Amino acid sequence: MSELAQRVLNGELRALSRVLTLLERNDPAAAEAMEQLDPRTGSGYAVGITGPPGVGKSTLVDRLAEHLRGLGLTVGILAVDPTSPFTGGALLGDRIRMQRHYLDDGVFIRSVATRGQSGGLPRIVKSMVRALDAAGKDVTLVETVGVGQTELGIMGVADSVVVAMTPESGDSIQTLKAGVMEIADLYVINKADRDGANQLAAAVTAMLQMSDLGDGWNPPVFLTQAYANVGIAELWDGITGHRDFLSDSGGLEKRRIERRRSEFLETVQEEIYRRITQRMTKDTALSGLLDRIAGRTAEPYGTAMGLLSDDEELARFGGGE
Ligand SMILES: Nc1nc2c(ncn2[C@@H]2O[C@H](COP(=O)(O)OP(=O)(O)OP(=O)(O)O)[C@@H](O)[C@H]2O)c(=O)[nH]1
Ligand SMILES: [Mg+2]
């Protein structure tokens, strides 16, 4: 076993941090580390917290982390930077708010940039969650900003998904209709101190009663005031309730198997794309092909399909660097 992987397994946070950096850089050493860490995963639990900008996700994550530490559990936090126009200084704010945890070895915090990714959640977040699991984090909290469809990616990362809303984001019910209902295992109406919180909770509950999601789980709705630490213990109990439901029904295993499969497929897809685009500048055969396509002497669809049906060509373009 590599020294790096061994240090991660020993719970060394700097080694864990290093593995996440290697993953972000697509460094071959990340593959080696992940292969060695994988057999030691499976005991951690991943919770996704998603919702529109400013609903209080970071505050919720921070309070949950505090609550979990109180229960003697170790915590990993991945804050996925959405690079959305809404959240300019948000990460800095998160850092400051979470600062007090930095002195605590039981909490590991990392922000993940999504720059350069084509929307949605970067697939390396799946690998990162597994790395945190191997490093012995009992619970990993993944914060992602989601507006409508972009929230859906969190489902492929977390065991339980918490969708957060506030009474002030008046379009909350609209958001629900836009497909969020399929991903939410639990709902949080945060900023319950604001007007309209109870009405929103009632509206969400009513909508849930009208829809049968068919998996036997009825998503509960929690009212929280994250900044005042109100409702956090209840929310955590709700999450463990969902975890128990999933493990009893076999749903947890199903979700995790699906996640592994999609991590593999997404990695293959992304890597082939990345390598081909990288080669466009260097590889004269490929740039020549692109020139012919542009110059109408080659047809885009047929040329692409031809390339893919030729194993040698495919290996040449998609293969190692
Ligand atoms: N009134 C009220 N404000 C809250 C509550 N919880 C959090 N806030 C405030 O809401 C603001 C946004 O909180 P964040 O935790 O940064 O929200 P976020 O969802 O992480 O925001 P982004 O990451 O930018 O999408 C902060 O000023 C918090 O102090 C609450 O229960 N009530
Ligand atoms: Mg935040």
Question: Can you describe what's shown?
Answer:
By secondary structure, the protein is α/β, with parallel strands linked by helices. The protein has three domains: 1-40; 41-249, Rossmann fold, CATH 3.40.50.300; 260-318, no CATH class. Helices cover 52% and strands 13% of the residues. It has 13 helices and seven strands. It has a seven-stranded parallel beta sheet, sandwiched between helices. Helix 1 crosses helix 3. The protein is globular. The protein starts with a helix and ends with a helix. The model is unreliable at 84-90 (pLDDT under 50). Bound molecules: guanosine-5'-triphosphate and magnesium ion.
Defining key terms:
single chain, 321 residues, alpha/beta, Rossmann fold, 3 domains, 7-stranded parallel beta sheet, 13 helices, 52% helix, binds guanosine-5'-triphosphate, binds magnesium ion
Domain module tally: 3
CATH architecture of the largest domain: 3-Layer(aba) Sandwich
**Strand line-up in the sheet with most strands:** 3-2-4-1-5-6-7
Which residues sit in consecutive blocks of at least 5 with pLDDT less than 50?
Answer: 84-90
Shape: globular
Radius of gyration: 22 Å
Summed up:
The protein is α/β, with parallel strands linked by helices. The chain folds into 3 domains: about 1-40; about 40-250, P-loop containing nucleotide triphosphate hydrolases (Rossmann fold); about 260-320, no CATH class. The protein has helices spanning about 5-10, 15-25, 30-35, 55-70, 90-100, 125-135, 170-175, 195-210, 230-250, 250-280, 285-295, 300-310, 310-320, and strands at about 45-50, 75-80, 105-115, 140-145, 160-165, 185-190, 220-225.
